[in-house]
Structures are given as structure tokens and as C-alpha cells.
Amino acid sequence: MIIIPAIDILDKKVVRLREGDYSQVTGYDVSLEEMIEKYQSYGTEFVHIIDLNGAKNDFSNQQYLFDVIRKTKMKVQYGGGVRSIEKVQELIDAGFHRVIVGTQALTNPSFLKDLSKAICGRDKCENKVVIAIDVLDEVIKYSGWMESSPIKLMDYVDKCLSLGFFRFLCTDIDKDGKLGGAGIKLYEKLLDHSPFIKLIASGGVSSMDDIEQLSTIKVESCVVGKAIYEGRITIEEIKNWNLESLISI
Prior knowledge:
The protein is α/β, with parallel strands linked by helices. It is 38% helix and 28% strand. It has one domain (2-248): Alpha-Beta Barrel (TIM Barrel). The chain has an eight-stranded parallel β-barrel with strand order 1-4-5-6-7-10-11-12, surrounded by six helices. The N and C termini lie close together (9 Å). The mean pLDDT is 90.
């Protein structure tokens, strides 16, 4: 299992939200450029960047983010406001390692089918496209976690799998931003339902003990944000964990 450092951007600033609530914002006195440079200096090759403005259909950040991200040699897993197949292809063609889709996949019935045709013919869906599943009490949320989907969680997973999408970023909203531990029970349910999915865990990771727990249930990777900024997990620990994980593969 690999640890992927997360950087959330709101109004061009590095922040973290609590339970996805835009009124509960913690800001950090560091820029996106500085965070990327810091991760690179420690040998980290993968970073997870979310445009929180874009998640609310506000694209005022987007050009800034694209300019910064395109300058880095790191592999970037990017999400926030990816609303069209054209945008997914644009990001992939621009060199983004993975593109996260969420709201559009839930609200547009044909989106995933059309995306599968467009992307899977060029590359495997699982390698370039990540399906975001943001969950609160087993209800899927979207549009910056402000709306609820009527689609049942496992039914949605099955639909995605049938179209060739195997990698999922699952955020346990109840855990997110609280540093209270990862949503182990939720991830276990998903993996019991579909053991072969490539699951990226997100939300609540507060220590290396949480990382150890996640590794035992065979998630592919986990996203860590606030725990880094709050000094609960160091970049050195992430580097060492990822090196050991690569050696053991």
C-alpha cells in the first residue's frame, strides 16, 4: 500500500475542510508550490491535488492550478470540477497521471458509458480515471458533498465495474478532516463486495497506526492530508513507508 500526500486548494490557498464543510476551513501558511517542492525534495513521486473551488463549479483557481501542476515532474492525481469527457482527455493529454471524476458521473446517466468508450480504447480506465465515491452513512454525496445521490453505494460500484472502471477513491466524510482514524468498516464493506477493485482510502488518517490498519485490509493506497500539516505524520515517514512498500512488491 502506498501513501499519497494530499493538497486541497481553495481560493489558491492550501486548506483542509472538516467533513467537507466549506464553513469549517483550516488554512495553512504554505503555498501549493512550496508543498510540491517539499514533497519532491523528499523523493515523493505522487501527489493528490483537489480544486475545492472547482468542486462547486467555481473555476477561478483552475488556470493557476494547471500552471503550477504542469511545471512539476511528480505524478499528479487531480480532481475538482472535472465535468466533461473533453476535460478528462485534456488533462490526460497534458500529462496528468490520473483524473478523478465524481459529480458528473453521478448526475449524468450516460457520462460513464461515454467516458469508457473514449478513454478505455486509448488506455485502461483503471490506470487513468479514478471514480470518486464520497460517502456519509453509506449515502453517496456529490457537488462538494452538498448533494445526496439516490444511487445505492454497491449498485454504483457495480455499474462502474461493468464499464471498465476499477479504481475508486473512497472518502468517508464522517471521518474526513477530524484526525479520528480511517473509515476501516466502510472500506472493508467495499472490498468484501468487490475484492478486486483498486481502492484508494481517504479521510481521517491521523497516524502511522492508521496506515498500518489500512494496509491490513489491502487497500491499494491511502490519501493523507491534514495529518501531515498537523505534524502527526512526517514526510520522512511517508518516504520510508513507500520505499518499503515498493521493495515488498
